[in-house]
Amino acid sequence: MNRVLAVSQSEFRIALRNRWVAIAILMMAVFSLVLAAAGSAPTGALGTDRLSVTVASLTSLAVYLVPLVALLMSFDAIAGEVERGTLPLLLTYPASRAEIVLGKFLAHLGILELAVGIGYGLAAAVTIGLDGAALSGLPALVRLFWTSLALGATFIGIGYLVSSLSRRPSGAAGLAIGVWLVLIVLYDLGLLAMVVADEGGGLTSRVLAPALIGNPADAFRLFNLAASEATAAAAGLAGAASTIPPVYALGSLLIWPAVALGLAIIAFRRVTP
Amino acid sequence: MTLTLSQLTKRFDGVVALNGVSLRVEPGERVALLGHNGAGKSTLMKIVLGLIPPTSGEIRVAGAVPGSPSARRVTAYLPENVAFHPALTGHEMITHYLRLRGRPVAEAAGLLGRVGLSDAADRRIGTYSKGMRQRVGLAQALIGQPQLLVLDEPTSGLDPVSRREFYSILDNLAAEGAAILLSSHALTEVEARTDRILILSRGNPVAHGTLADLRAGANLPVTLVLTPRNGAISALATALPDARPDGRFLILTVPQGDKLATLARITALPQLADLDVLPPSLEDIYAHHSAQEVAA
Do B77 and A89 touch (CB under 8 A)? Predict the structure, then answer.
């Protein structure tokens, strides 16, 4: 455990010096504030509090931004050590490869926690400041916070995986962007195309639900929107899949981080220094 | 026995990187691996560290399999052209390594002082010179009194004064019982500071022994530089038909066995003013051995 913490502490310090902490916090804060400001416009008789509306907008933002920040922090973790030539020495120390990965993971997850916490916190402060009744939406915000961490943890693990597989920072960066595009953008487009082509036939009912639950980003969106009062504000696939029990989405959200980290550790074990 | 290699062989995609290398290093012994670039020195070290597996052969580090937790606990490594994260300071980097070895972080200042980095300890490693990075590398290798130190070209990039300080630190470690395996591509760098030398040539062990053993094994001729009396150079040359004129001097090369007899003969010549005896240089000895394909 001490070794995990040692790796974690150095990694956090490096991220602080490389401005990654500042960049992550700034990105989350700016986007959250913009959404909070946009969501605070009079919404009419929606029958829900303003914070829940903001949380719904933040959910749509987090689906794109949290995986991106997670991948940006993690893609260099192994490939960067290989390129700098620091890996062989590290591997002669009495720290297992799993301990090294876990140490880096703790640091990167901590940074994400800071960024997401500050971003959502600012958004909540603005919303509640405008309308005290919005406090009743706080549970939705808390749920968004920890599910964002689960989503981020998955993509940090995926970042280590592509970092171990490509072994060069440039290759890892390209692969990370590719993973983000496929899992976050193209995946949903593909499912939408399928739904449209199938015209609500048997294929959609059999494939859509598992496909949505299987993707950590869709599971994240499903769980937050389904649990929230503001499902009406949700558009697109999430609406189409409103029949999926949220507990499945929750299971996917919680299993994915372990799967991604496990795969990352396996891939890292195969890296020859 | 701290380190035992027997019949170690490593092939990369059919290319032989190491071929039947055997070596034993006892506590307190300093052994140098010598060879050109690509001779297999770094490969051998990576196998000793457990970073890559051998193709065949036996290897034990303090009785344990290389790369196992107990082997890693007692082994320290200084890689060739050692690198660290440029954003961390020397002190932070050493603290990091101390914690990985489960040592008190308070030892960092002492270690940095021992390698002469106290003044730069709080500067980022990105601002360090190559020699200073090498010192950070040495400082981390000293953590926790390792039983085996594996040092890959440790003195490349160090100035002569730093090199002497470096070897005196190694002498102390060896005196405390550490086994040291270091590599170099120049015999002149390691001569007096090692107990034994193993010369590798394209993965083959071509010579193994003390410097005196290698000198005797090479059996290279001795060079005599003769200074004639004023105006007597042609007379001396006539008396010594084998000698080759070189400016004001005459050069004579004689086999080791004939050295004393030849000296007795030419010191008797009246035309001779002075004489220098040049034993075969270390570079000559190294070149002789490393040119051999396989050990005799």
Answer: yes
Starting at the edge strand found earlier in the chain, the sheet holding B30-34 runs B75-78, B148-151, B179-184, B30-34, B196-201, B204-209
Q: Where are the domains of chain A?
A: 2-269
Pinpoint the residues of chain B covered by CATH 3.40.50.300: 3-216
Interacting residues of B144 by C-beta distance below 8 A, sequence separation 6+:
B76, B101, B103
- B18-68: pLDDT as tens digits: 999 999 999 999 999 988 888 899 999 999 999 999 999 999 999 999 999
Provide the token pair at A234: 């949700």
**Which of A16, A93, A97 to mutate: most B Cβ within 10 Å?**
A93
Which pTM was predicted?
Answer: 0.87
Match 């021992």 to its residue by tokens: B114
- B22 and B6 Cβ atoms separated by less than 8 Å: yes
Q: Please give the structure tokens belonging to residue B160.
A: 């002569």
User: Lowest mean pLDDT: which of A136-150, A226-240, B234-248?
Assistant: A226-240
Question: From its phi and psi, is residue B63 left (phi > 0), alpha (psi between -120 and 50) or beta?
Answer: left
Q: Chain A: nearest CA to B162, how far in angstroms? A: 22
Distance CA A44, CA A116 (A): 29
Query: Contacts of residue B76 in chain A, CB cutoff 8 Å?
Result: 92
* CATH superfamily entry for domain B3-216: P-loop containing nucleotide triphosphate hydrolases (3.40.50.300)
Q: Does domain B221-279 have CATH number 3.40.50.1970?
A: no
* Interchain contact B147–A (C-beta under 8 A): no
* Interface residue B219 vs chain A (CB under 8 A): no
d(CA A126, CA A103): 35
List every span in chain B annotated with CATH 3.30.70.920.
Answer: 221-279
Residue type, A71: L
Q: Which member of B69, B124, B140 has the closest CB to residue A94?
A: B69
B65 CB neighbours in chain A (<8 A) are: none
Nearest CA to CA, how far is A87 from chain B (Å)? 9
Torsion sign, CA atoms A222, A223, A229, A230: negative
